[in-house]
Write a structure and sequence with these properties.
By secondary structure, the chain is α/β, with parallel strands linked by helices. The protein has 31 helices and 19 strands.
Length: about 900
């Protein structure tokens, strides 16, 4: 049975409680029975531009802004709000899968989730807390080494930093210390185990192929048990194992290890078993041992993105399996830490020397041409030179950090380990507190900047080893380019702090990395074409600010974010955030003359990352349309700035663009910036803005053409003939323009009763027209407006007690009806979630009360029928009212 085939009768039971307990009566503090653990490794590599600390638009993820957004839409949010559907496809239950699955979510992904979708982020945090409450204090979440580096290939110092940063990030989010930790690619060796044990990690999860041999733990010093060779993945994965570290036998330091079931886990990733919850449960059931042991754990593990991203809709399979299939079979849904608390390992294991779950050659996938991850007719010879080059750079950066950091920090390497506190909270107050705790002496402002540069240099030194850079078939892919950008930023910071020039030696070594793309030939050329061109200077940030200042208003400063930016209450300073830079506008003058617009200003930029600041003078001339000429230079004092400003404004008065540009060149030099130099997001916004007037004229022309030929077009469709494509295109463009105009005004006037209703009637008329003329309206922005409005109106209906229920209900139903007629593919998901939550919190309790008291049920019936419109299964309760 699939999740979508849930019988209506079951739906009536499920709808009573979102958090259906999957224990099926099994006590969670005993050691008997079958325990099931499904582990999801959720991870996205860091994608942020190292200079902007933000992810820029990624075309391959369209229609979403970037791959994080796309995968979030397909996986992370669906798993936080996993649907259980009845036989009609209506929502019978909403399950937070994170509450029942074991999971780790990489810190780089969690930080993005926190900023992008706080509801999903909080739902993940709540899932860990609820699972901890259910499982005797053992939450489902486990930590991850910070930015997914291959631990056996890391230096000892980096190993410890990755674990400490991963633990600190976990503690900051989940409010507890992690019991287990996920190793990137499950890559492990004994030095890595040593570091994990030293940092208090109790268990890890590995693939069965990583075990060498195992035996029952001897019960006394005099007894010895026989070792069983299991190097071919023959280890029994239904129990936990204890792995003792080599060394002093009297200490017997150890870490516990779970080996997931390899065949089932592979089937989850590469077969269709997860598309059907009954098949999934049956596949797991086949692994249950029929021996007489009191308990056993069936654990499976795969990339969390399998559920929804790689295999669409399978989050529903999980939800139904957790809440129905597994409990029905008498299995206890648990996690590794909980099972370990009930079952102390009675077997020990020894591991192969160096292994990972996605490479059959140890960890060569991240350093050699082993064949793993390759493509037909493409080599992987670039991997070893890339690894050697980055290792060389890491060691040089470590020397720079030790020498320079000793000037500022009491303990440079302890300071680096604690720097995660700043990464998690970059407020000025927190950074100041951090520096005060670690400084060797009272740091001056310039010393604070250098101290932060050094720490950022080390952060990028860690980020440049993110495993994804080696995982695929080609160095010039986005993943390889990204780690080279981190390396570039680290070298730049080293040069700024210590004057050490490392780029030449870096490129000499990278030139030995051959690529598969003729236009690059070697990694050095990848660096020159894809990395150097992405570097950003203070001048570029200033140019971005200058050009965009022509199209944006100015708001007075309300707060400052770095200690060397003092607030000015004379309302002469305006402030704007440009990614991770704070732009303090100290002076700005704009003058228009015909089609020419000139702005001259004095700007102070402050990096929120390193606190570095620069004062710059800018001038930007807009010649109309897409033509801009922008110049930037260091601020050289008020006198020089005033003189420069007067000269430029006087030059503009002559009404000659050529003369004004000539004066800009004379005052600023030959270097200039234009629209292409803007950061992508703002460039695209301005391109749309500058195109709007032209597009409006085109829309009006097509609208007139449509009106003039409406009768002709209708005649073609009435007689079943194919309409001329020119007329059909005119109709679609005209109706899209009219529809978007109505939708935008509807959003503005939604609180005006009569206006809002008129807009809805107009949209209904547009929908009817489009249907008669067989027009397909492609309105992505319109879909988003309707989704926002439906969610807002639903919230007001359910929570605003001051409003008129009848009007609010009528307005919302009309909006839903309009959307259905426009057929824009509006998502009901968030409205369903809001309704579902209110259904349990207030609608059903009221329903039970009114049924018992035999009161007027008309309003309640309307609310339940609204649930039907939102495709929520309320049939059981509607039948009770009739």
């Amino acid at each position: 049975m699939t999740a979508a085939e849930l019988p209506t009768s079951v739906g009536a039971n499920l709808i009573q409680n979102e958090n259906t307990d999957p224990r099926n009566g099994n006590p969670l503090n005993t050691t008997t029975g079958v325990y099931i653990t499904v582990h999801g490794h959720f991870y996205q590599p860091p994608r942020e531009n190292p200079y902007l600390n933000a992810i820029e638009r990624q075309q391959g993820a369209a229609p979403f802004h970037n791959w994080n957004e796309r995968i979030h839409h397909e996986c992370y949010r669906p798993n936080a709000f996993a649907r259980i559907l009845n036989e009609h496809g209506n929502v019978a239950g909403i399950v937070n899968n994170f509450e029942y699955m074991s999971f780790n979510i990489g810190p780089t992904l969690m930080s993005w989730l926190q900023n992008y979708d706080i509801d999903v982020y909080q739902r993940i945090i709540d899932a860990d807390r609820k699972s901890s409450d259910r499982l005797n204090g053992h939450g489902n979440a486990i930590a991850q080494v910070y930015n997914h580096i291959i631990m056996p290939l890391a230096s000892e110092r980096d190993k410890y930093s990755q674990i400490r940063w991963g633990k600190a990030d976990f503690r900051n989010r989940f409010g507890r210390d992690p019991e287990g930790m996920w190793l990137a690619e499950a890559a492990v060796d004994y030095p890595t185990l040593e570091a994990l044990v030293s940092e208090g990690i109790r268990f890890i999860v590995l693939a069965p192929s990583q075990a060498e041999r195992c035996r029952p733990i001897p019960t006394s010093e005099d007894s010895e048990s026989e070792w069983h060779e299991v190097g071919g993945s023959q280890i029994d994965p239904t129990r936990a194992y204890r792995c003792y570290l080599p060394g002093n036998e009297s200490q017997r330091r150890y870490i516990d290890i779970f080996f997931y079931d390899g065949p089932i886990s592979r089937d989850m990733g590469f077969s269709d078993v997860v598309y059907n919850s009954s098949h999934f449960a049956g596949r797991i059931g086949a692994a249950v041992r029929g021996d007489r042991r009191s308990s056993q754990v069936i654990s499976v593990a795969t990339d969390g993105e399998t559920f929804g991203h790689h295999k669409k809709g399978t989050e529903k399979t999980l939800a139904y399996a957790f809440t129905q299939e597994f409990p029905h079979r008498g299995w206890t849904v648990t996690n590794f830490a909980h099972y370990l608390s009930l079952n102390t390992p009675t077997w020990e294991v020894e591991l192969k020397p160096v292994t990972a779950w996605s490479c059959a050659h140890g960890v060569d996938r991240w350093q050699d041409d082993c064949g793993c991850g390759g493509a037909p007719n493409w080599h992987l010879l670039w991997r070893r030179p890339l690894r050697d080059t980055l290792n060389w750079l890491r060691d040089r950066l470590a020397v720079v950090y030790q020498e320079q950091g000793s000037k500022y920090f009491s303990d440079p390497w302890q300071t680096r380990d604690d720097y995660i506190e700043v990464v998690l909270d970059r407020s000025a107050k927190n950074i100041s507190s951090f520096l005060n705790r670690h400084q060797k002496h009272k740091l001056q402002a310039s010393e604070q900047v250098d101290a932060l540069r050094l720490l950022e240099m080390q952060r990028h030194s860690l980020l440049m080893f993110t495993s994804c850079g080696w995982f695929f078939e080609e160095l010039s892919r986005p993943e390889g380019t990204q780690i080279l950008r981190y390396a570039s930023r680290a070298m730049e910071l080293a040069a700024e702090v210590a004057g050490v020039q490392l780029e030449s030696g870096f490129l000499q070594r990278l030139d030995k990395a051959p690529t598969n793309i003729d236009s690059f030939k070697t990694g050095a050329e990848v660096y020159r074409q894809l990395v150097l061109t992405a570097q950003i200077t203070f001048k570029q940030v200033a140019a971005h600010y200058a050009i965009t200042s022509l199209f944006s208003g100015h708001q007075p400063v309300e707060k400052v974010s770095a200690p060397d930016v003092k607030q000015n209450n004379d309302s002469h300073i305006y402030q704007k955030q440009v990614y991770c830079y704070t732009a303090n506008e100290l002076d700005f003058q704009l003058q228009r003359l015909g089609s020419l617009t000139l702005a001259v200003g004095h700007l102070k930029l402050v990096s929120e990352i390193t606190w570095e600041s620069k004062q710059l003078t800018f001038a930007v001339l807009h010649l109309g349309g897409w033509d801009f000429h922008c110049c930037i230079q260091p601020f050289e004092g008020k006198g020089a700035y005033t003189k420069l400003k007067d000269q430029l404004l006087n030059a503009l008065q002559q009404g000659s663009a050529a003369h004004t540009i000539l004066m800009m060149i004379q005052l600023f030099g030959e270097e200039s910036f234009n629209l292409q130099n803007l950061f992508a997001e703002e460039r695209h916004r301005l391109m749309r803005l500058l195109s709007q007037e032209t597009l409006t004229r085109v829309d009006q022309l097509y609208t007139q053409m449509y009106r003039d030929n409406y009768g002709v077009l209708m005649a073609f469709h009435r007689d079943g003939l194919e309409a001329p494509k020119e007329l059909q295109a005119a109709a679609e463009i005209a109706l899209e323009y009219r529809c978007m105009t109505s939708l935008r005004t509807l959003e503005q006037d939604i609180d005006e009763t009569q206006l809002a209703w008129n807009h809805l009637v107009e949209l209904e008329a547009i929908a009817n027209e489009a249907k008669h003329l067989r027009c397909h309206l492609n309105l992505f922005e319109g879909k988003q407006i309707l989704e926002r409005l439906s969610l807002r109106l639903l919230w007001e209906l359910l929570h605003d007690t001051n409003g008129s229920f009848d009007f609010q209900m009528q307005r919302l139903e009309k909006l839903i009806e309009v959307e259905e007629r426009l057929n824009l593919g509006m998502s009901l998901e968030r409205s369903q979630e809001l309704y579902f939550n209110c259904l349990h919190a207030s609608i059903l309790p009221k329903c039970i009360t009114e049924i018992m008291k035999d009161q007027d049920k008309n309003q309640l019936r309307q609310l339940l029928k609204l649930g039907q419109r939102l495709k929520v299964d309320v049939s059981h309760w509607l039948s009770q009212l009739d």
